[in-house]
Amino acid sequence: MFNGREIKLAIAPIGWTNDDMPELGGEVTFEQCISEMALAGFQGSEVGNKYPRDPDQLRKALDLRGLSIASAWFSAHLTTDGYERTAAEFIAHRDFLHEMGAKVIVVSEQGKSIQGQMDVPLFDHKPVFNEEEWALLTDGLNRLGSLAAEKGMKLVYHHHMGTGVQTTDEIRRLMEGTDPDNVSLLYDTGHLVFSGEDPLVILEDYMDRIHHVHLKDVRAEVVERVKREKWSFLQAVKAGAFTVPGDGSIDFRPVFGLIAEGAYEGWFVVEAEQDPAIANPLEYAIKARGYIRETAGI
């Protein structure tokens, strides 16, 4: 399916130790995390909260295990803090990732976001941007994308549950309001399905702008409980709304087919935040690796 294409496989550390809820996997060390990633057969990682921020120290630890850095999350606050403050933080983040050899920078707008609020119902209180906020967001992203391009990198926007860019219509507005040369898209299967979107529609409409892929599965029965019992995003994560590809309700075969047809090259990142005390991270990493090999031929 992907013969002759450069597809690299990474896995996010959030299955071992959670950035938003440090108590999940608090006992797991950085060294255990990256060692098990390599043992499960992955080539790369995104950056977690326990990773050293000194490039030389981090590079040495990764090189020993045959891993590299695919990217790292950046929280933008363009709609609330403005461009200048966001840009200063973005430049430092960009320069760190550039030192680590990454080609893309994952950006998500966190102005008005409820994804980190433990007791705020996810579907009842989803933020919605007004016209002024959309203008601040799209203009700011275009400018941040130019900063990324200075280092030969791409800004990839991460649509995300509990934020102002979650639904198909919101993704469309973001794509239509930004310059394709400056703003690309991170495609996340789990967040689309969790939101109630058709994940194939975004692939069909924006394949040429997708330059980073997160492979995340969902447990449909947990998502239904999130809606019915008015849980927050963090409560949903703790309850197991997300899992690795092949363990949930998403059929990834048509997803892989469309991505292959679109001549995608770059990283596939398995990202499935779960409680590691319930879902053993190494076990689930091995499960994901086997499923991708079986369904995508990688």
TrEMBL record:
Record EC number: 4.2.1.44
GO biological process: inositol catabolic process
Record field: catalytic activity: scyllo-inosose = 3D-3,5/4-trihydroxycyclohexane-1,2-dione + H2O
Top-level taxon of origin: Bacteria
Cofactor annotation: glutathione; Co(2+); Mn(2+)
GO molecular function, one term: manganese ion binding
Keyword Lyase assigned: yes
Top class in the EC scheme: lyase
Pfam family, one: AP_endonuc_2
Entry keyword set: Cobalt, Lyase, Manganese
Pathway annotation: Polyol metabolism; myo-inositol degradation into acetyl-CoA; acetyl-CoA from myo-inositol: step 2/7
Xylose isomerase-like TIM barrel domain location: 38-293
Keyword Transport among record annotations: no
SUPFAM superfamilies, per the entry: Xylose isomerase-like
Similarity field: Belongs to the IolE/MocC family.
NCBIfam families: myo_inos_iolE
HAMAP family: IolE
Record protein name field: Inosose dehydratase
Source species of the chain: Rossellomorea marisflavi
Gene name of the record: iolE
